[in-house]
Amino acid sequence: MGTRPHEECESLDLDNDTVREAVSGDPDAFRDVYDALAPRVLGYLRSRGVEDPEGMVSEVFLAVHPRLPGLTGGSAGLRTLVFSVAHARAVDDARRRSRRPASFSYDPEYDDRVTGSAEQVAVASLEAERAIALMQHLNEDQKTVVTLRIIGDLTLEQTAEVTGKTVAAVKQLQRRGLLRLRSLMATPEVAR
After folding, report:
1. What is the pLDDT of residues 128-146, one digit of tens each?
2. Could you state, in order of their start, the residue ranges of all structural domains in the chain?
3. Distances in Å between the alpha carbon of 127 and those of 81, 132, 133, 151, 186?
4. 10-28 pLDDT, tens per residue?
5. How much is the pTM?
């Protein structure tokens, strides 16, 4: 409690030394980067309604890897790069789905899963589902800013860079989005 978003990510062992090693091509350091950021990227992509968020997490890191040699800004620069790529992929996914909406019926006969993945179990909690459902009541800009700030754990400046907005606009969108979510959370019949 009381930590700023970038401090919390550093507590996930994503320090500038690890980032420097990943930039220099150390596969173990890149794995540490992935382990620290992938759950947040997955949460961001899920909250944006991406069709295959797990697959897209892999795509994001595959796109980030070749761009590492040009990285500046240490761990903060890396988080900004990763979430810039994730945001662009989420926008592309939404555009693709709007052009060709796909709908598939669920057929349990072809579902061979025995148990859900750890991520599925964590996100499947009722409050997480309700929070994600309530996010759909925000406008697109508010939803983007709130998910990048909370789930993506980006700073105001990083969020502004990812979205192409000013820091002041990001602050205002975050404030309005959180006020709207607070109001929706207080209404028991919403998104139940």
Report:
1. 677 778 888 889 999 999 8
2. 5-102+119-185
3. 30, 8, 10, 15, 13
4. 434 578 899 999 999 999 9
5. 0.61
